[in-house]
Structures are given as structure tokens and as C-alpha cells.
Amino acid sequence: MASYETVIGLEVHCQLQTHSKAFSPDSAAFGARPNHHVDPVSLGHPGTLPVLNRRVVDFAVRLGLATHSRIAPRSVLARKHYFYPDLPKGYQISQFEDPICTGGYVDIGRRIRLTRIHIEEDAGKSLHDQDPESTLLDLNRCGVPLLEIVTEPDLRSAREASLFLQKVRQLVRYLGISDGNMEEGSLRCDANVSIRKASRAPLGVKTEIKNMNSFRHVERAIEYEVARQVCVAKAGGTTREQTMLWDPIRQETRPMRSKEQAHDYRYFPDPDLPPIVVTPEACAAIKATLPELPDARHTRYVTDLGLPAYDAGVLTDERPLADYFEAVLAALLALDGAPGVHACAKAASNLVMGDVLRALKANPSAGFPVSAQRLASLAHLRMSGAISSSGVQELFMLMMTQKGTAKEIAMRHNLLQVSDDAALIPVVAQVLAANPMQVEQYRSGKKSIIGFFIGQVMHGFEGSADPKRVRVLLSKALDSPAP
Amino acid sequence: MRWATFGSTRAALARGETTCEAVTTTFLRAIARKRHLNIYTYVDAEGALRTAREQDRQLATGEAPPLAGLVLAVKDVLCIRNWPVTCASRMLDGFNAVYDATAVARLRRQGAILIGRTNCDEFAMGSSNENSCYGPVLNPRNEIYAPGGSSGGSAAAVAAGLCHAALGTDTGGSIRQPAALCGVVGLKPTYGRVSRYGLVAFASSFDCIGPLTNSVEDAALILAAMAGVDERDATSAPVPVAPEPVGLTDAARCAGAALRVGVPKEFFGEGLDSTIRCSIEAILHRLRAAGAVVKDVAMPHTRYGIATYYILATAEASSNLGRYDGLRYGYRPAPDGRKRIDLHALYAQARSEGFGKEVKRRIMLGTYVLSSGYYDAYYAKAQRVRALIREDFDKAFQEVDALVTPVTPVPGIKLGSMINSPLKMYLSDIYTVTANLAGVPGLVIPIGAHASGLPIGLQLLGRPFDETHLFRLGELMMQLAKD
Hints:
heterodimer, A: alpha+beta, Arc Repressor Mutant, subunit A, 10-stranded mixed β-sheet, 3-stranded antiparallel β-sheet, 15 helices, 17 strands, B: alpha/beta, Amidase signature (AS) enzymes, 16 helices, 13% strand
């Protein structure tokens, strides 16, 4: 396959988390009983009219600004016509000639250009597999707002397509405009795929793949389709321009019936809806409310907090986690005797990436019970050496179910270790005095015997001394010239 | 008919000379007597009498709403909660509206007694009221003639004394032309003046709801009650509504001297009936004598009006009527015994059988002009001509305050005479369509009669949102016509 280059463009549909629908006061919430969010407007009853939900415009502008797009001061809603039972009006309100955003980009290591982002409404759902005799309709989704993000044919592999989608998902979640859930259909994607011999050659004939509802399926489907096109090309054939459906069970793409493909959508500006106007002032006001986006946050974590790129990546992946991490760090820095920012950041990062993420994964739905303030107290305890690394894990688990600061719980469960020099030095001196032979061996070069001394000191504290500190004190005493 | 106008009824109610119930009963009896005119498609005698009795109680305690006693008929294209709405089409067979149109709701709150629905052309498409699944309406002035259309039932109901007033809709002249042919007052308000919510759409950027009445004062009262911005119609205008025009007659008399009236020569060309021309000229002569300035104005793009209108209105209609597919409500063809129904065949059958000839003709015309490859040549070009026609009006209104024109080129439409010549029918809209293309208000008043008994109407066109001026002028000219 090395002799062919893959060219992919994506059309991503992202369902917006507005309370009401794009053009009616109906609830846009997911998961209601079928056909319960269906006011006369959603049903397209005679005489009903759409009225644009301004929040949809705000959300579109948010995504537009976050992807460096040009925001149109005036954009037009258009009708896209086709007949289907889950489309009650016989047309979908969308944007055609004048979309709200154009010319943005998303970085995934390489820059992927966006052709446009536009507003549209969702159709209802046709359920073909619930009843042996009939197709059932659920019209709850009719009129739920969507943004469609269209890329230039800039993606070069199935992996890149998946990375791009993940980046879009991260972005819309950061912006708080969508939950980006592919399985529930709030993030959907169609891929236009073609191959060509050389990277400068004109674009080949593309096929459009539909019905991919996870990142994994996107990757698999595109890989399959590319392989299929290469096969066709190698056999001397040409790819037909057609729409393919991904079959996740048989793991293959296959052509849709041609009857479902030939569409003349007869777009024209919707006479019920005045143009969408976004003034420069409105745009600036929305810009002011944008959160720090993942790329900017990542950079700051590495340069300002001194975190490894890996840590920065994990922490910034989801906005709530990054927000939590920063709250822990702020709380930690406010505590007495906290070391520098870099050390605190790393300590907080270790806890968040380790114990916190593990706990969240084990029980993703439950509310997380350890406040940032309390986690900071744990980090602080750990940095002071008052608790061992294995003690940290145990203490963290206890904090999940018990009230109090890390120190209070550690004291209650006897988890504190002695790291106070005043307590440790007399015992170190005692051990050395009691074992002159071993001291001699150490001093004559057998450094490994320090383990023996550490064991003796730890024994003196019944295991609850800080081994690191003990080692430091022992080395200091042994390496100093004999009295 | 003693209480032909609401104005006179209201005065009689105030003097205690009659009751709402008595007035309503009188109309109900008249409706029963004139059943052969085929005017009403539905009469809610019980509901009307219940409202009337309630209002009589309120009148006794001084709590009656301002329009108490107004017996109102409604064109069968406006939604009234729990009433059938059929648009005179088989397609909406068995469909009941689940909500009140905004205009209806406002009038109801103000005290209107809804007595029934009136016959019309199917989906308001026609100029003779012969395209109706209920059959044609007879013109009460001369029963071998059509009442005009599409609000033929509404005009005939007012002319025959079967209600005080009726609501009609005007997309290309559908209030004004039947008003002229039945000899009543008809107002097409400025586009956006009255919410379209609940008006079953024909052509969304043209459709207007307006009153048909026996006096200018009644038209003004009804407009004031239903006008104003509506959050359910994004095209409704936030322009304040003029208060109820008290003392219309006196004000109109005084206004005569300050009037500047334009006569567009393009509206008086070849094809205009000579009696109509003479009647209008006679009135203009009297108007001049009353002190008004009457001058010629140019409306050079008028001749493109019909072509432009029939491209844009059919385009919008083809889109608006896409929702009637036989699946969710209304007409559903009888199954032909096959077990599995092909979806597209079902659509085709439902729409072929459910729609009448004229509606299908317009859907096909509209579908054609929006088709890819033809859009620019037809739809886009027609939009540009529409802008030019609007400019004609803007320019004319810099010189004059209103335009005086005929309403229809022909004195009347004999029943059955135009059914097979749709083009001739379309051309008869020549004097009315430009007001819809420009969105300006138009008032039609009766000014005389032909020897056949058929009335002669006159059209006044005014500046956007200046209906008040039209009312004053209309009142004045009706007086002049009587003198």
C-alpha cells in the first residue's frame, strides 16, 4: 500500500447541549421516552414556524473562535429538502451558501484545515430493528441542534482521522457545547475517502463512508475502505463515486442502495428565518467567556509548571480533570512549608494521574468524594515524608470513604511515618554504636551493608520511620570521619 | 341585516338594544338559510353561543373584553385548537389543530366569537375558490359568479351577512380580489404586521392574515387586535401597532386636504374593464375636488410581477407542502393489499390522491425552479426582480402617500369559466401580486357596482406599517363613492 497516498476529509456532526431545540421550545435532552419531546413545531404541524434558539448561535461562535474560524457577520439558514419518515417537515433547516464559520483549523500535530462549520437541526430516529413488521419512529430528536464541521481533504490516514475526531471531541467538551459522546450519537462522522499515486497528484474518486459510531469504527472503516480502493486500483479498475455503509458486525464497507443516493436537495434560504447576525461586539463578548483551551493549557503545564509532556497530556485531556488538578495545586501551594511550584506540580500530578484517575476509572459514574483541598493535604503529607509511598495509596483509599484531612485520617489509622530528625538521630546513633563491626566493614568499602543499618533503625520504629530519611542520616553519620 | 358591521352592533350592545346571544343566533340562522352558497366548511354553533352567553354576562358586569359581540368566521387555513383545519384539501382529511393560531388567539382574548371556518381554494391556491375539495362558493351578489379567491368563503360570508367579519389570507391577492368581487372591505396588512404562526403556509415570504369586513372601522379594529410582534414568528415585526382609530370618519374628512395620492399608469393599461376604469376615475376626480393631490407615478417593474410571483411563491409552496406525505396525519391512501408497502410508492400515492390539480401544478412548478441547474435562472433571478419591484414602491412613496389602483382587470369570474385556463387565472392577479412582492399593505373598498349586480372594488396601497393612513383614505373614498 506504500505506493498510494490516502486522502480523507471528514464531515463531523456534533449535537449541542442546549436546553431547548434549535427552532422550538421543546426539550433537547437525550434519553426521554420515545416521542415525548414533540411539540407541534418539532412535529412540523401545519402552521408552525421555526424560531432560532440564540444559544445555538453562541455555541457555533464558540467553536468557530476555538478553531480560528472566520465568523460571518451575517449568515443564512436554508432548507434542505428530502422525503423521509423521520423528517416531518420534508426539509431540514441547515446552512448552505452562507455558513456561520469558515476557514478555521485544528492542530493534531499537523494542521487540518476546516472548510466550514454550520448550524443545522437533527432529524428524528427511524428504528428498523425493534419490530419485525414495521419501522418505528422516535421524533424526540427532531430539531435538536447540530453543528456540522467539514474539513478540507487534509487527513492522510485512518489514524489521523481518529485523532482529529478525538481532538474535536475534546474541544467541544472543553467549550461545554456538547458531550461529544459517539456511542449515544452526539458526535457523528462521515468520511470522504480516496487514494492517489503521488502526493501531488490530483485527488482520486472518493467514496463517502457513513454509520461509524466509535473512534475505533472510524479507524477500521477507513482502513477497510482504503484497502478496498487500493485493491480496485491494483486490479486496474476505478473507484465509483458512491456512499458506503460501514457494517460493524461484518467489519466491512458496502455500497448503499443507489435510490437513497440520488438527491437534489433544492436548497433555498428559509423564508421563515431572518439571517443570523453576529456583531463584532457579540463575537468579542463570547470570546471573553472562552475557557483556556487544551493546547494552551498543555503548553503552560510544560513551560510554567515544569511537568513532563506526558503528564500535561493526561491532565489536560478532560477539562474537569485539568480544573481539579489546578485546584489541588493551588491548595497545595497555599499550605505552610510547601516547596516550589515545580515540585508541588509534580506531586499533585502524581496523585491525580495515579490514585485519582484509577479511582475514577473504577467508578466513573459516582461523584468524586475527595475535594481538591483534601487531596492537597495528602500531597503535602507525602512531600513532608510523613507517609510512605505505599502508605499514600492506603491513605487515599481511606480518604475516599472517610471525612477529615489526610493527616487526621493517617493518625487515626497509624499510617504516619517518623521522618523527624530529632526522633531519628538518637536511634541512628544507637544502632551504629551497637554494631561497631558492621560500621568498620562499611567504612572499609562494603557500602551495601547500609541496608542492614536501615533495617535496624526501621525495626527500632516498628517500621514506621521514613526509610529515605533514615538512609540519608545513616550515610551522613557513616561517611563522616570516625570520631 | 340590522347589525351588518361590528361597529353598529357594539353601539347597540352598549345601548342594551341587543345581546351577543341574539346577534350570534341571527348569524347562525342566516348561515342555515344560505347553506346553498357553500360558504362555511364547519360551523360551531354551540361554541359560538356559549361564548356569546358568557359575554352577555360579562357585559352586564362591565367585564366584557373590547371586541365582545364580534362574530368572526375564519378561513379554513388558520389553526383553531380542537377544530379541524383542512385548507379545503383532501390531504388534511381528519386533521384537527392542536393549537390556536396567534391571530386567532389574540382575537379570541379580545372577545371575538368564532362561529365557523370558511371555504377557500385548496391551500389558498387559486383566484376563484373553485379549487376546493368542498366545491365552489357562490357569489352572494350574483350566484352564477365565483366569489373570487382564495379567501372566497370569507368574502362571501361577510357579503352575505353570515358574520360581522372574517379572517382571510393574502399571498398574491387572496383577500383583496374576493373582497372586490363580493363588495366588502378587505385588508392585506404589511408583511410581518400579523404573526403567521398557525397559518398553514403557502408561500412564507408572502402570506399575510387580514380581515374582511363591512366597514373600514371594523377592519381597523380587527387589525389592531391581532397585530404585533410574536415570539413564535421570527418574521413578525417589532413595529408598534397604531391604537384603535377612534373617530375614523372625522379624521378622514380632515385628512383629505393633506393627501397626496399616486396613480400608477401600469395598473390602468390594456385589459382593464372599462366600467372599473371609469368608476375609479370618477372617484379620483372627487378626491381631487376634496383637495387631495392626485398624480401619476411610474411603477416600471409591475409587468414582471406575475412571473416573479409565480416563480417565488411556487418555490416556497413546493417546500412548505413537502410535509404532507400521508405518513403522520391527514390523508392516507387505502392499502392496496400488498403486505410490504414501498415508502416512495406510498408518498407518491398519498400526494397524487390527496392534493388537487392546481396544488400539484404549483408544487411541480416550484420544484422545477429550485432544482439544481435551474435555481439561478429562476429563483435567484426572481429574487432580484423582487428587489426592483420593492424599489418601485419605495420611489413612489417618496412622492405620494398612497397609490390608487384597480383590484382585478375583470368585472367578475363566472363559475367554471377559468377552470381550464390556469394561465388566464394567474394573469388576473396582476394588480394584487406586487403588494405581496414588496410586502406593502393594501386595502380594498367597494366603490360601486356593475349592471350585473357585481360590485366594483378599488385598491389602496400604502407605505409599510402605515395601515392607519390607508384606513383614513379608505374611509374618505367610501364616503366620496356614496356622495
